[in-house]
Amino acid sequence: MAKVQPSLTEIDPVWHRICEEAETAIADEPLMGGLIHAGVLHHATFERALAYRLSMKLASPEMSEQILREIADAAYAEAPALPTAARADLVAIYDRDPACHRFMQPLLYFKGFQAVQSYRLGHWLWKNDRRDLAYFVQMRVSEIFGVDIHPAARIGKGIMIDHAHSIVVGETAVVGDNVSMLHSVTLGGTGKEDDDRHPKIGNGVLIGAGAKVLGNITVGHCSRIAAGSVVLEDVPPMKTVAGVPARIVGEAGCAQPSLAMHQLLGE
């Protein structure tokens, strides 16, 4: 007897769960059937669904959905690390955001997830010397999502940007794995210098709402930056900083602040 090969959904638990949730959502709200079928159930793989969703969001009279979808399909075929990072980002949002109750939500509704995946597409274009297309993606992400990430910036996986309003990440910024940041965060420069001028954020860092991290400085792994802080100097690993300008006010409070999401200074 021939061995039965597992389906794609069976070997991709993230995609399998999204499809199950999509079926349930349509049963609960039939008026969403067209959108959910087009965004999820019409596609055989997570990669195809993600390419479709991003192309629909980024399309404009200047660049069609079809062209953008072909670009995304090519990127995911050539660089499988991109959809792998997208899965890690999606799971991170589900684990850390109390407003996220289904895996389907970030893919269809959350602009933080969609903006980061669009940035990843632009970064792939940038690395392949397709700079004008990369700038176009950056422009559309800024216009549609209110998130401005330079395509040359380097961002790890397991990223959660909660609410994702007024986020700015500069050209030479580096963000590690499993980082969480809230709305209105800036990873910016301090002047017109044309060299390495943006922050380097370690793994497991939590950056509170409205925080500004400026200049070519290092924020050590598993540290916390309190909401509204202005960080102008290096932050040691596993510390909490707060204030304008930010100063060390204590330990990080846990092994990985970005996972725990505790933002009160007493915690």
From TrEMBL:
Positions of the Serine acetyltransferase N-terminal domain: 14-118
SMART domains registered for this protein in UniProt: SATase_N
GO molecular function list: serine O-acetyltransferase activity
Associated pathway: Amino-acid biosynthesis; L-cysteine biosynthesis; L-cysteine from L-serine: step 1/2
KW Transferase (keyword) present: yes
Reaction it catalyzes: L-serine + acetyl-CoA = O-acetyl-L-serine + CoA
GO cellular component: cytoplasm
Keyword Aminoacyl-tRNA synthetase: no
Biological process, per Gene Ontology: cysteine biosynthetic process from serine
Listed SUPFAM superfamilies: Trimeric LpxA-like enzymes
EC number: 2.3.1.30
Key words of the record: Acyltransferase, Amino-acid biosynthesis, Repeat, Transferase
Taxonomic superkingdom: Bacteria
Matches recorded under InterPro entries: Hexapep, Hexapep_transf_CS, LbH_SAT, Ser_AcTrfase_N, Ser_AcTrfase_N_sf, Ser_O-AcTrfase, Serine_acetyltransferase, Trimer_LpxA-like_sf
Family: Belongs to the transferase hexapeptide repeat family.
Name of the protein this chain belongs to: Serine acetyltransferase
Organism: Yoonia sediminilitoris
Taxon lineage: Bacteria, Pseudomonadati, Pseudomonadota, Alphaproteobacteria, Rhodobacterales
